[in-house]
Amino acid sequence: MSGKGSYTNINYSNDCLKIINSTFQKFLDVHSVNYLIELEKTLEDIGTFFDLDRMYIYYFSNDPTFMKIECQWNKKGVEPKRELQEEEVVYALPWLIREIKNNEFVAINNINEFPKEAIFETENFSKEGIQSSLMVPLKNENKLIGFMGCERLLKSITWEEEQINVLRDISKIFSYTRSRIKKEKEYENALYGQAILLNNSESQIWALTNVTSYATVNEAHAKFFGKKKSDIEYQDLYDIFDIDTANKLSEVNWELFQRKGLAKKEVQIKNFKGENRLLQIKSKPQRDDNGNIKYLICTAEDITEQRKAETELYKAKEQAEAANIAKSQFLANMSHEIRTPMNGIFGFLELLQSTNLSLEQKEFIREAKSASEILLRIINDILDFSKIEAKKLAMEKIKFNLRSTIEDAVSLYAPKAAEKDVEIYTMIKEEVPEEVIGDPARIKQILNNLISNAVKFTEKGDISITVDCLEEENEMALLYFKVKDTGIGIHSEHINTIFNSFSQADASTTRKYGGTGLGLAISSELVKMMDGEIRVESILGKGSTFKFNLKLKISKRASDYKLAFEKLKGVNVLVVDDNINNKKIVSSYLRETGFNVFEAADGANAITTILSNINTKNKISVAIIDYEMMDMSGYELATTLKTIPFAKDIKLILLNSVMQKCDTKIAKEYGFSACLTKPVKRNDLLSCIAMVLGLKSEVKEENLARVNKVDKEDKNVLKPRILLVDDNEMNRKIVISILKSRDMSCDVAVDGLEALKAVSNKDYDVVFMDCQMPVMDGYECTSKIRDMDESKKHTTIVAMTANAMEGDYKKCIEAGMDDYISKPINFDTMFNIIEKNAKEREITGDYNRIIEDNIDYFARDTGLEKDDAKEILEDYVKCLPDLIFSINAAIDDKDFNKLARVSHELKGSSGSLRIMSIYELAVKLEEAAKKQEIEKCIEIFIKIKDLCNIKRSK
Ligand code: ADP
After folding, report:
1. Which residue pairs from 267-274 have beta carbons closer than 8 angstroms and sit at least 24 positions apart in sequence?
2. With a 6 A CB cut-off, is 487 part of the ligand 1 pocket?
3. Taking all residues of the chain, what is their mean pLDDT, rounded to a whole number?
4. Are 206 and 227 in contact (CB under 8 A)?
5. By CB distance 3.0 to 4.6 Å, which of 192, 475, 576, 587 could disulfide with 600?
């Protein structure tokens, strides 16, 4: 039906208005669900009204180079234009699209109207059999979003203005409605998305308008109380919940509102099952334009399980800590328990060694001792390692002599190295500070480990220990230690794991050399704890170099030592040694002190050097001569020098290895003034030179301590007074026996109380005090002794304990003790302590006077030559101090039996030597002792002391 042919103009126009109106009505509030149905219907109405064959609507896709038909109507019998939803490329019809973009409409009455450039369109239209077509752009906010098309297939049509206007108006309704529905859909989607998030969230979410009024809530919150969202939303708490819950919630809400900002609170509240749950609520106020709180947005997590787990974890942690403490305690106890029997093993082996044994038995003991030492080292390693693991190892910060710490560590392994014929050198550079602040025991432990490994893994060649000071800043010295060996080396693949615990280079190493693989792990941890670094370089079969650095505070500079040896500056010294390294080290120590140093590689060279300098300012004053050289021995060289008139006054010092132990008597016969043992310690070397040059008084006493002086004087020293306090019988037995082996004795107390009594009755040189004892322990006893001491005197108390855990030393010192020896006891240390403290009691007697007063009478009476008589008298006076000490002790102890016995002894010896003055007093003393007359005994004893002119030096 042709629109115009069948209607009058008016009717047609009315119909057109009607169709616009009805379309407008339909789409004004069409719901998105019905939109497409209504659209299709409307296209049909319009198409039918205008007698068209087809109507369609294209919309551009999000990517505007594509478009697709959203809706189409095709007259009955007419093929659909496209399958719906099929995407097409926009620029398949380039001319048409351009025209649509730039015009209000594009009307093609006839296919022949296409301009020339519309090649694709012409082709397309003819292919699809389209005669006429009208296309109206669809726009939203002036942006082209698609177009509506109307087609005639069978017959062409001339598009009329009115028709075009109607279609344009309708297209506006379509594009408006499409945009509205699209927006609504987007909004709906957004809301739906939010609802999904809110209602599926495990967290509870709600908004409050005031303390008791809810706004909106999510499912989780409603579910917690066993309610629906709608039960709670926009309701008052008191209308929803039981009174307890409502009260509790309003109380919490009030607090959260009060905080005015972000707030957090934990609340215990019952859920719908009546279970107590712990909620962690977080809130944030949302404010209006005036800054008033509009909503309080709250979220809550149920942390009941989490808290339970945390509590469990905390409990487990506490249990673990308790277990750790128990472990440490166990270790301390174990260490104590192991050390006590080890003390027995060491002690009795030591005692056994001094008895009459066959060579084979002696060898067995040597082996047993060495095995016990290894066992002790392993125990110490495990203990240290556990302490490090339990972070229980604390570092000390004390002043100590770094040089002697290093030298002592080397000395310890020098005999072992010498046994293997491996040379060991120490080179401590001049810049290394003399005294530093740190932990000497731990530094020594690291060195001990590295040096012992070097000795263990080296069969030939040498081991050198070098220490250098790399830089000094703010009184801190950066020290660099190097332990280098020429041993078996380490395979490159093991280098990285060597510092791990229980790590050994390979199984065969373990089999051959033993060890626990803990030493380096401990050393590396110790270095780390001192903020240093440790590493190793090694070539398999060639040797290894372990290096570590430490930063330590300087307490006494390196140069300070030079002041003590100022007088030695410029002295000409000759060093004779065929070992280049050794010669170099000795010479460098001498040069840095200011000596004028000459070197000779053998005896012949030494003689030439001495002779060529005889009449010059370089005349040699001191020669340091190695014991063993290629061309002649040290002794031979000394003999030769003594025969050369110009050389015989040169002071000679013999340098021998630990294995060659200096026989001072023989050395003296060969003309040596002193012996030094390799590896040479710098201060010993300097002290020794000072001593042989007669500058002893210029040199501090401490520097002389270790020099092996050839013409050592025998000192008459009273026997030290020792008190041993120990509850363990075996320990007591050992100490007593060891003391006896050196001709010493001690008093014994089995607990602190007995010790107190003993100390109040007698003035001891040293008290060896066990710490753990029944009745009164060592700590309490020490503090009581200190109270007794007051300012009058100071009793030296040395802890002798098997406690070796961290803090034990500190505990002893804090209790007032002076020193500490751990068990198993190192007896050398014990005797050093005794010697140090007994020295104070050295006595001098004018024995020459006794000899002078009595010799004539004795010689005459016995008919002896005066010289022989003198010798006998000299022997007698040598015994006098001991006898007098014993009398003194017996009087102190009121031990009359002993007093009578010793007096009898004195009576006998003085009687047979015709020393009548002493003899008569001894007779009286014996009598008084037998009668137990203490006053008289003391009176006689004072007379005897006067006679001998004995007085305590202190
Ligand atoms: P241990 O010596 O008790 O086995 P360490 O931790 O001291 O334990 O050493 C671990 C391993 O490192 C040794 O077993 C050895 O394989 C290797 N090692 C350590 N020092 C040296 C060295 N100077 N030369 C060669 N190998 C070494």
Report:
1. 269/245, 270/244, 270/245, 271/224, 271/225, 271/226, 272/223, 272/224, 272/225, 272/226, 272/227, 273/226
2. yes
3. 84
4. no
5. 576
Residue 179 pLDDT exceeds 80? yes
Q: Give the burial class of 166: count Cβ atoms within 10 A of its Cβ; 0-12 exposed, 13-18 middle, 19 or more buried.
A: buried
In this structure, of 238-252, 692-706, 821-835, the range with the lowest mean pLDDT score is 692-706
What single string gives the DSSP state of each residue in 761-788? Answer: HS--SEEEE-SS-SSS-HHHHHHHHHHH
Q: pTM for this one?
A: 0.50
Distance 152 CA to ligand 1 centre (A): 100
Pocket test for ligand 1, best of 422, 498, 548 (most atoms within 8 A of CB): 498
**Measured distance CA(925)–CA(898) in Å, rounded:** 12
Helix axis angle, 916-930 to 934-948, nearest 10°: 160
Q: Which helix (H) or strand (E) holds 537?
A: strand 533-539
Percent of the chain's residues with pLDDT above 70? 91
SS3 content of the chain, % helix, strand, coil (to 5): 50, 20, 30
Q: Is 60 helix (H, G, I), strand (E, B) or coil?
A: strand
Tally Cβ neighbours within 10 Å of residue 453: 22
Residue 707 has a pLDDT of: 46
Q: Could you report the per-residue pLDDT of 307-360, keeping only the tens digit for each?
A: 999 999 999 998 888 887 777 667 767 777 777 788 788 888 877 877 777 777
- Residue 536 CB less than 6 A away from ligand 1: no
- The tokens for 252 are 């919490």
Q: Is the pLDDT of residue 83 over 80?
A: no
**pLDDT per residue as tens digits for the range 713-764:** 333 345 688 899 988 877 888 888 888 877 788 888 888 888 888 888 777 8
CB 436 within 8 A of CB 475: no
d(CA 453, ligand 1 centre) in Å: 6
Q: How far is the CA of 312 from the centre of ligand 1 (A)?
A: 43
Which residues contact residue 532 at a Cβ distance below 8 angstroms, ignoring those fewer than 6 apart? Answer: 548, 549, 550, 551
